[in-house]
Amino acid sequence: MRNIMLAPSMMCVSPWEDPAGAIRQLTDAGVELMHMDVMDGSFVPNLMLGTEAIKQLRRVCDIPLDIHLMIDRPEDKLAWFDIQPGEYVSVHAESTHHLQRTLARIRDYGAHPMAALNPATPLCMLEDVLPDVDAVLLMTVNPGYAGQTLIPQTLNKIARLRRMLDDAGREDVDIEVDGNVSFAHCRRMYDAGANMFVCGSSSIFAKGHTIAENVAAFRRILAE
Q: From CA 21, how far away is CA 102, in angstroms rounded?
């Protein structure tokens, strides 16, 4: 079995409630990563989590960050984020003319380079960078906003990516899914080949239960 990694989306944590308490609960629940969505209002139609938010989270949390750069020309901006060894950093194939070069620079920081694809972007965009990635992030909704409905054909896309990676001898590459990764959908995503899960308002941060209860429920569904 491939290692399961839960990456709660920190954009789902309200700064007006108790972010420090949420971080403590996530740490106590043993989540593997903290997912940070960086949006520039250009590549996606929203602004979210800039460089200072990332620096602040590092100061109060020892869990490795999973930095999702939804920004134009990420190759020009990587230095802004003070990328640390052991972190995961994803850049969109659609956002840069120099994907391979950008992935190589992420690895030079000691981080895990990841290529990300929007729902309508074909898998063939990854063919020539498979040697350069440690993981691939597949968007299962169009990026920019939380709370969207799963695009159903992305489930088949996960399975096709897993076959593509295995056929290329990259069985070691992880697949991350991001977008309506809910209690209802996570098992099908896992069965299709995903093992990294960006968890938000439809799972870990769902109302009515504690974060610890939701994390346990999520892991239980994957183990059934």
A: 35
C-alpha 52: how far from chain center = 19
Q: Is there a catalytic annotation at residue 191?
A: no
At 113-165, the pLDDT tens digits run 999 999 999 999 999 999 999 999 999 998 766 667 899 999 999 999 999 99
Residue 82 is a catalytic residue: no
Tens-place pLDDT, residues 167-220: 999 999 999 999 999 999 999 999 999 999 999 989 999 999 999 999 999 999
Q: Which of 40, 134, 174, 178 is catalytic?
A: 178
* DSSP per-residue string spanning the chain: -PPPEEEEBGGGS-TTS-HHHHHHHHHHHT-S-EEEEEEESSSSSSEE--HHHHHHHHHH--SPEEEEEE-S-GGGTGGGG---TT-EEEEEGGG-S-HHHHHHHHHHTTSEEEEEE-TTS-GGGGGGGGGG-SEEEEESS-TT-SSPPP-THHHHHHHHHHHHHHHTT-TT-EEEEES---TTTHHHHHHHT--EEEE-TTTTT-TTS-HHHHHHHHHHHHH-
Q: Which of 37, 40, 66, 174 is catalytic?
A: 37
Give the CB-side neighbour count of residue 35, counting CA atoms within 13 A: 25
User: What predicted TM-score, i.e. pTM, was given to this entire model?
Assistant: 0.95
